[in-house]
Design goal:
This protein is of the alpha+beta class and about 240 residues long. It contains three helices and eight strands, in the order ααββββαββββ. The N and C termini lie far apart (about 155 Å).
Length: about 240
């Protein structure tokens, strides 16, 4: 009886080949999808080249707008500086005009003063009290009293005289008069000689309980002329 011989066939297994095949199928599918997507965009009028061109054009427009914005900012900064300079210049001009007006006012006052010396409005040619000013001094209750005496300019002779004044007011509720001899700090009597005009000054100290009301000025010429008496209200001049 013949013996039956069986053969065993071994088929080698290659797992890597399946993976490669699977990857190829996936990649092919992705390429097919991308191709279909690009084809759809192309058919709808979209082009990568035209899109890139538009992007470049937009970027150029943005850059141009940014440059214009920078130029506009620079112009605004320049205008602001110019406006500030104009304001400062205008303020300086206004200050200069104010100073000039102040000087002009002082000059007009001086001119009026010299005119009164040269040609008195009342025609009186003798000595007179032209002006009296009371100003605060440094210490409390201290004041400077300033007198300006004048006489007509065509009086060629030098005049000699003395000036005195007293302060009228109330003290402790009663009427009181304080002479310069009692309240004077820098002088007790004012002696002077002048041809056209003379300014006299005396510092006084008033008691704490004294309330001034008037200043009585008396100028006594040395050569027989009648004394000149004139009263002024008490008024503090801070200028």
């Amino acid at each position: 009886m013949p013996t039956e011989t069986r053969r065993l066939v071994v088929t080698p297994h290659a797992p890597g080949r399946g993976l490669v095949l699977w990857a190829a199928l996936v990649l092919g599918g992705l390429l097919a999808l991308w191709g279909a997507f690009e084809a759809g965009r192309y058919l709808s009028g979209y082009s990568i080249a035209s899109a890139a061109g538009e992007r470049l054009e937009k970027n150029g427009e943005i850059a141009a707008l940014q440059k214009r914005l920078q130029e506009t900012d620079a112009k605004l900064a320049t205008l602001e500086v110019a406006r500030r300079v104009d304001r400062e210049a205008q303020a300086q001009v206004e200050k200069s005009l104010s100073e000039l007006q102040g000087r002009l006012g002082e000059a007009n006052q001086e001119l009026a003063f010299y005119r009164s010396v040269l040609n008195p409005s009342d025609g009186i040619l003798g000595m007179r009290v032209q002006r009296l000013r009371v100003q605060p001094a440094i210490k409390p209750r201290h004041f400077r009293v300033r007198l300006v005496l004048v006489q007509a300019a065509h009086q060629d002779a030098v005049s000699q005289a003395s000036a005195d004044f007293s302060i009228e007011g109330t003290r402790a509720g009663h009427a009181a008069t304080l002479p310069l001899a009692e309240i004077g700090v820098s002088a007790r009597v004012l002696n002077f000689s002048f041809r056209y005009f003379q300014e006299l000054e005396a510092e006084i100290e008033l008691p704490a309980d004294f309330q001034p009301r008037n200043i009585e000025v008396e100028v006594r010429p040395s050569k027989g002329a009648s004394p000149i008496r004139q009263a002024y209200p008490w008024k503090i001049d801070t200028t």
